[in-house]
Every structure is written in C-alpha cells, then in structure tokens.
Write a structure and sequence with these properties.
The structure is a homodimer of 288-residue chains.
Chain A: H1 2-7, E1 15-16, H2 18-44, H3 51-81, E2 92-93, H4 102-123, H5 127-152, H6 157-184, H7 191-208, H8 210-220, H9 222-225, H10 228-264, H11 266-269, H12 279-287
Helix pairs in contact in A: 2-3, 2-10, 3-4, 3-10, 4-5, 4-10, 5-6, 6-8, 7-10, 8-10
Amino acid sequence: MAMNFTAAAAVSIPSLSSGQYSTVYNLFSLVIASMLFSGLYLLLAQKRVAPRYRNALIISAMVCGIATYHYFRIFDNLKESYPPGTTAVDPHLLSSVQFNEAYRYVDWLLTVPLLLVETIAVVALARNVSKRLLTKLVPAAILMIILGYPGEMTLDAGPRLIWGVLGTLPFLYLVYVLFVELTRSLDGRPAAVRRQISALRLILVGTWTVYPIAYMFPVIGGEFFGGAGGFVLRQAGYSVADILAKAGFALLIYRLARTQSILDDPAAYDYGETTPTSAASQGVRSAA
Amino acid sequence: MAMNFTAAAAVSIPSLSSGQYSTVYNLFSLVIASMLFSGLYLLLAQKRVAPRYRNALIISAMVCGIATYHYFRIFDNLKESYPPGTTAVDPHLLSSVQFNEAYRYVDWLLTVPLLLVETIAVVALARNVSKRLLTKLVPAAILMIILGYPGEMTLDAGPRLIWGVLGTLPFLYLVYVLFVELTRSLDGRPAAVRRQISALRLILVGTWTVYPIAYMFPVIGGEFFGGAGGFVLRQAGYSVADILAKAGFALLIYRLARTQSILDDPAAYDYGETTPTSAASQGVRSAA
C-alpha cells in the first residue's frame, strides 16, 4: 500500500480552465450542503420513528457527517492545489500541493460498510440474523474499497482496469448477499415493507454503479478523458454518486423506518397521514 | 522532565518523501473521522442503554472527543512541519516548526485513565468496589504515560529502552488489577456479560501492546527504522492503535452496555432483536 500512496502524487492534472475549476468547486459545495443537512434532518426526525428503527437513522446521519467532514477537506484541498491565476479567467495551475484523491477512499472505507450496517439496521432483523449478514457484507465492502484504491492512484489503463475488476468481485458477492440471503429473512413482512426494502437495495446497488463508471474515465483515455475533462467528469460523477448513495439513501432509510413505525404502532406514529378518514384523526381535525 | 521537553526538538526527521508524507497525512485524517463520529454516535445512542450504563458511554465519547482535538492539532502540525516542496512530488523538508510528539502524551495522559474509568463504569459495580479498583488503575496508567515520555523524546536506543521498560512496570500492575482483581467482582453476572467483559479487557490490553511496538522502532535502529521509514511506521502504529483503543473500544463499551440493558430490562431495551419470536413482537406485527 505504501507504494501506491507514493504513486498518488503522479495523478494530478497540471491545469484546469477557470470553468472546469468552478464546476468542480460548486459541485463540492453542493455535496457539503446536501450531506450536512440530510444528516441533521435524520437526527432531528428521530422521534418520528419507533425506537427499534432509530439506530438506522443515527448511523445514516453519521455516514452523512463523515462525508461532510471529507468534502470540507476535499474542497479546501482543491483551493490549495489549483490557486487562481493572475485574473479570474486564467487557468488554475497545479500548485505544489497535491490534489489528494485518497480522501475519498478514506471516506468510503468508513462509510460504505456503514451504509450496509444502516440497511440491515432499518430492516430490524433478529440480532443473530443481522450479525450473520453483516459478517459477510462488511468485509466484502472493505475489500472492495481496498482493491479499488491502487487503481485510482494511476492514470494507466492497465493497472486501473485490473484493480477495478478485482474490486468488482467482492461487490458481486455483496449484491448476492443483499438480493438472495437478505430476501430469505423477509418472509412474513407486509408487502409494502418488502417493496420498499427491494427498492432500497436496488438504489444502493444502482448508485454504486456510478463509481466504477467515474473510475473508468481515464481508461477510456485520449486527451479529454485522460486529462482535465476526465478529471472534471470523475469528480462530478463521484460527487453526484455520493449525494445519491449517502444523503439520498439516508432519506429512503428514513421513509422505510416511518412506514414500518406506522405499521407497527399506528396510534403512536401515524399522524393522520395514512388514515385521514379515521374517526380519531377526523376528531382532531374538526376540534382544531 | 523539563530537560526531556527541551530534548524533544532533536527528534524530528529532516525530510519525508511525498508518499511518506501523504501516508501519514491520510492516516491522521482517518483518525479524525473515526474518532469524531464514533464519539458522536455514542452520545446519540445513549437512550438505547439503561441509565446506569450511560455514564460509560458519555466518558467514551469524551475520550474520542479529546483524541479528535489532539489529532486536529497533530494534522495541522504535520502540514506546518513538512510543507510541500516546489512541486507536489518533491520531498517535504522539515520547516522551522517542530513536529510535536508531545501532543500524543498529553492526549494519553487524559485519555488512558479515562479508558479505565469507562471500562469500570460500564461494568457497573458497587460504588466502593469501583473506587477501590480505580484508585489502583488510574495512578498506574498515569505513571505508565509519564515514564514512557522521556524515552519518546530521543531516538537513542539506550534511554528509549530504559524508560520503555520502566513504563512497562505500571502497565503490568494494571493488567494484574484488570484480570485478577476485577474478575473477583464479576461473580453472579450472566455468562454472556462475563464473556463480553473478558473480551473487552483483552482488547484493551491487546491494543495497548501496539504502542510499545511503535515506540520501539527507533531502538531497532538502522537507516529505515531510525529515520523517515521508522517515523512513518511509528505514526501509523500510533494512529491505528488509537482508532482501535479509543473509537473501536468505545463501540465495544456500547455493545456491552446494550447487552446488559437488554438483560436487565428487556421490555424497555430489547427492540425485538433478541426475541424475534416473542408474543409481544409478533403481536405488534400481526396487528399491523
């Protein structure tokens, strides 16, 4: 791994046009705003779900928080690595500060396993079933991130492709566990809950496919994909994927927790939304 | 001690390659993210454990908070001590700002006794028993840190070894208290709890053995261990050990607190995880 950290220094693009710089800069700021306040919302909305689902909300909020921390670092790093030229329209030339792509991998090393933990937590399985699934999912997720990293540290198509393919293997195993083994544990759940869990898994795996696409831009090569254009597309791809896979996913976790809370205990958690015609709810309405 | 604080200035490594710098830099950032959000998680998850165990969670969160503070300082210190060269791939030469290893000792002076306090707090012994154990454990921990410090302030094998051995003596006493005296106080606890407490102690003492290994790299000497390579390995060792011994340990404290809360009062704290087939849990489901 030490060798690959060393190679990291070689990846940086020598120059970004002022438009390319602004695009990446504004996207990073969008990610910070999205992550920070999705995470805060989940913490503030905790009482709207039953206690058994709250852990999933807290973990989702931690994922958004960890990503917020890293995007603050990435944002500051971009400013240091590509300072402005003499005028505002000049290209931003790479300074002596390397643009540190490793922040993303440190982030994913923590957040990707936690995304799986929050998925299993919101399904609220028996403790031993959760444990069995997570002892398969979490190591696969960590292996996926570690295997992707050496490929990220080079723009050479060969090693990038090889490490990319190696990282895909634990990903496929993870998909198998989520779609086959998890499904077996869902017998007896209400149809509405099973539908939402299926959607949740699809979106989890679906948003994750954006990462390898962004990862593979340099493999396409050429002046655009191998240079500044590919850099901007890759940063944009990672940023949008992070918003969907973390902030967006957290909101879906919340929605599933709400649905289940209402089904488990309508008296406590249905604020008249799903039973607008019930006597109780009407009574409150007309009294108001 | 004053002499040794002065001597600290002599320890710094004159130059780090850009890869060595990045490795240490990224590890420090990983520590910040791990500590900060493990600590926050413990504060947010407090309601999931019974009141008698919450103090252990709060203290664990404080330990993570103190470490987060110190790693922010250490991270900024690294950036100031080893600024970039002319280009991103040049070596980072030591500036006029010393890399201050004392941050770690200040951190440990506060956090190591607190780790023992949280361990005793989560076991929830009678007040006089806790007090008796802590009046042995806390002074031993403080003595261990103080005796290790003079050795850290030199790269000479002799004094480093002597202070290292002296610091090991209170550590051995501490292990004795944790494994012999604490065990006597655990009679009558459920087997599951006794198993988790045993694991907790093993992990506490196990992760602490990483520190003397990292500490001893300069004693091995030679160009690698006595120079920049040893510096990177030592920082990596301390960082990983800190994550395991503080953030990881905090999560184990939380898990033990959860287990005990569920055993003490299943109606309040078992959210259907350990009793998925119980009448109560099924009743809620079928009513839905």
